[in-house]
TrEMBL record:
Pfam families: GIIM (PF08388), RVT_1 (PF00078). This is Group II intron, maturase-specific domain. InterPro entries: DNA/RNA_pol_sf (IPR043502), GrpII_Intron_Splice-Mob/Def (IPR051083), Mat_intron_G2 (IPR013597), RT_dom (IPR000477). Belongs to the bacterial reverse transcriptase family. Residues 1-119 form the Reverse transcriptase domain. PROSITE patterns: RT_POL.
Amino acid sequence: WKYPRIGRALSTGQEHGQLVMDNGVFKPTTVGTPQGGVFSPLLANIALNSLDWRLNEHGLRFARYADDFVVMCRNHTQAEEALALVRSHLENELKLKSSPEKTHIATFSEGFEFLGFGISSYSRSMRDKSVENFKTKIREITKRSHNLDDDLIVQVNRIVRGTANYFSTAFSHNRSLFRKLDRWIRMRLRCMRYKRKWKTDNRRFRLKYFRRMGLLSMQDFYPRPA
């Protein structure tokens, strides 16, 4: 290894192995790295570094984070050539395969998904799957059988802060979506408070009460106009 400390860290991580679930049972394995693990992005960068150089050699503009990347082309012909180049390099040089479900050619007007965003010529916002993942996390902790207390607000704020910080970039178009999600979260909390879903509860438990409890608003994370 050119960088011994990195080599030792990777070797130690692989030696310790991991647990994977097989038919509901956790089993040890020493092959691969866990999804979302700290070593995964580093190993992806090491493995795909040669692909970066190959794309640069052909004058192609691209953006890559770990093993997710998008190549920008001027026309469909160049896009087909770039796709063939990527597949050839992955399979022949790196002995890897691209995901058939995620690998395709699309126009900017049609749009594409990248790192949780839906990106097109008219919008750059949270993709539908990202929104649903966010709602699933909120649903899990805001069941009506639970109590609405300070600890619950802390848990909700943790999810809101992480999601809003990531998606409230200056180039994104999520303001109206954040407004809807804020209202949806407050609706979930009112249902917890009164153990029901009823329109008149909006007047009984107003926004100012949520503010007093310390509930964060996703809209507040958006950069304010200069």
